[in-house]
């Protein structure tokens, strides 16, 4: 393959860093985003860093302008949030959707005209298997990732005639240290406290035992390289088996399966 220009959001750690490094290794020109490039203490060799705050529309537009024409966009950056639905603050919900949905969608809108003019491009939305297998106390995060997948799935047909492929990669449990960065909202006197902590303990354990960011990056590159990308790629958490069971089991049974995996009865 001839070298391409790729923009990878959230490239300072986790999946984004793994994807950026993999693209550099094969000779692509890689632009990676982070909120403040000046704060990166261990930059990836070969990655050019751009500032991006997905919750700030002006920052999104400035990043797109700085990036210029790109052949590949990997919308990876996002926030992991948890808490009982009843207790999620409105401003936290708004920030999450700006970061996880509206920012990536706006960035995609800004880069699509160039791809369309060149009649080619690949856009990968990094979602979560929780969008396909919802989990209690992760409602805001589940909804944001489901929304991102919805944009990708519906827009696939719009851009396909121009040689542009849009796909979603849904990782399951990943060992990237995200447990320590998750934003949490739980009232001091919450009636959900005990069950919430049960879920959170299981979630953190599953993530500690999860697949590596490099494993997810390999699937992202598979989606980028496919002549006809599939609508959805899933990786980790026994994805082939659980998606097969999801097709066979009643929806309620599949939801109970997810709950039990996280200590909820």
Kindly describe this structure:
Residues 4-172 form the Ketoreductase domain. The protein has 265 residues and is of the alpha/beta class. It has a single domain (5-261), classed as 3-Layer(aba) Sandwich (Rossmann fold), CATH 3.40.50. The chain is built from eight helices and nine strands. The strands form two sheets. The protein has a seven-stranded parallel sheet, with helices on both faces. A two-stranded parallel sheet has the order 5-8. Helix 4 links the parallel strand 6 (121-126) and strand 7. Helix 2 runs parallel beside helix 3 (90-118). The longest helix is centred in the middle third of the chain and has 29 residues, at 90-118. It is globular and about 55 Å long. The mean pLDDT is 96.
CATH class placement? Alpha Beta
Radius of gyration: 18 Å
Tally of DSSP helical segments:
8
How many distinct domains?
1
Number of strands: 9
| Percentage of residues in strands | 15-25%
CATH superfamily: NAD(P)-binding Rossmann-like Domain
- Percent of residues in helices: 40-55%
Give me the side-by-side strand order of the main sheet.
3-2-1-4-6-7-9
